[in-house]
Amino acid sequence: MPGMNSIKWFIQKNHRAIFYGGWLLINLLQAGMTELFDDEAYYWVYSHYLDWGYFDHPPMIALLIKAGYFLVRNELGVRLLTVILSTGTLLVIERLLPKKNDLLFYAIACSMAVLQIGGIMAVPDIPLLFFSALFFLQYRRFLHRMNSANATLLGLLMALMLYSKYHAVLVICFTFLSYPKLATKWPAWLALLTGLLLFAPHLYWEYRHLFPSVQFHLVERNADRYDVIYTLKYIPEQILFAGPVSGFLLLWGAFRYRPKDYFEKALRFTMIGVYVFFLFSSIKGRVEVNWTIPALIPVIVLSHQYLLQHFSAAKWLLRLAPVTLVMVLVIRIYMIMEEPPFSGIAKDEVHGNRAWASAIRQMAGHSPVVFTDSYQYASKYWFYSGEPSFSLNTPFYRRNNFNFWPVEEEMLNKTVYVVGDRARFFLKDSISAGKGPEGGLLTGPYLSFSGIEIRSDNPITGPDDQTMKTKIIVMVHESLGRFLAMPPYNKLPIQLWVLNNDSLEKVINTGITMDQLSCGENHFVISFPAGLPAGQYNTRFAIPSGIPHIATVNSSFVRLKVP
């Protein structure tokens, strides 16, 4: 049939444009028709306060959202540049293939659901993946010609990776470990020095803020004790992450493939290194499935090279890829639908956000809204109501960037509407919005000092339970200085909350009040009787707020040792 032959000829001639154009178009439509995930809203608030760093992540995602939202002021704008980068990642990975079978490459990409669904999300993983792919491409050029130009460009890409997500450290380290002789070559040192110098502004930001990201990711995220379920879940989760249907086949092919040169060796080292690193990390706590995302680049390249040589395995992948596409299509439709079809889903992030924000706004009236223990709900409300909101983080929760942003000062001395767990925080209003916190309370004047940072470098200990003693540093930002001596703020005390899992064991008064502080660093030596049985306790420094039964968390966990 002439017509069919013409269509076939057109597809064969333009298959790359059809694949990449279709990939980009579908994700743009999805991005514009799907409400934000919780963390996306949080990163959107990042973009209101551009800085060299944030509590949770480096600043790349904030910059991308800022640029996209400037062009399109809705969900599509939030995701615009990450959607473009996710498509660009595939283009770069395709160039990494020494030998290429187009159909096989398309099948591998379509077998990875995370590249399709995750490709619409405004999260740090997308720029990390994009710049990691560019890093590997430049590393191959660097191996071919080690000169100052290639070294400088390699260093630039290292910095861009690090500005995307801290996991870039693993890609850089395992790449250089794959070729130990690089330690004797000056261009390799030039690349590392360039990357370090370009990343220095973020390191200085960490220094000025007492290294909150280091403390959070390396200490606070650790579980109190090892749970074998963390390790048992890790391997099956990673297989599904590589592909819900074909992940086992792709990982099998990638691990079976034997590198032919130093470039492929770097890919293999990175893949194995990332997977093994996070396997051991499961000893310290739960491993988020997406943390291994840089390993997907080696998985794609190495599995492609292996399947090129093993036709029977490649045929299975080609048969299974359509199954994944159907699964992804179902998920896409579900995400776009205005009402979720499955009522049994416990946490539905992409439906009902506008109605939820509207219901809370009606309860709050003209008052600002303060959420307890939820930076995600505070960010979601801000995006969908158009009104700035604040996350008041208590000692039962974790610190986040709401502890740093000047949102809190704008609400001090005002009447606010507090939203949170109705039972825990004694909030009398019942909020029925189909999701989120259940209780609310109109209260004022609002008092809190979330922006004060308190650090104790050593565990709190003493010769007996009556003479606990430690040194603390209290950091007060200039924006809070004018409130320190102002009644009734001036008599708010700094407290030490002793916690036992999710329950409060005891509140200890340190004897320090706000009127004893000044802007900048304040150094104190505190001593107090613990009055607790012998043992080790998790504690946090906190400051009471004007909301009954609620205090702000002002430090990371501090270990209290009672002899």
Molecular structure report:
There is one protein chain. The chain has 563 residues and is an alpha+beta fold. The protein folds into 3 domains: 12-335, no CATH class; 353-443, no CATH class; 453-562, Immunoglobulin-like, CATH 2.60.40. Helices cover 50% and strands 14% of the residues. The longest helix is centred in the N-terminal third of the chain and has 32 residues, at 2-33. The relative contact order is 0.09. The model has no long low-confidence stretch (mean pLDDT 92).
Write the layout of secondary structure elements.
Elements: H1 2-33, H2 38-46, H3 60-71, H4 75-96, H5 102-111, H6 113-117, H7 125-144, H8 148-164, H9 168-177, H10 186-208, H11 212-220, H12 228-242, H13 247-256, H14 262-281, H15 296-309, H16 311-336, H17 353-364, E1 369-372, H18 375-385, E2 389-392, E3 416-420, E4 429-430, E5 439-443, E6 453-455, E7 468-476, H19 478-481, E8 493-500, E9 503-513, E10 520-528, E11 535-544, E12 551-553, E13 558-562
Helix pairs in contact: 1-4, 2-3, 2-18, 3-4, 4-7, 5-15, 5-16, 7-8, 8-10, 9-14, 12-13, 13-15, 14-15, 17-18
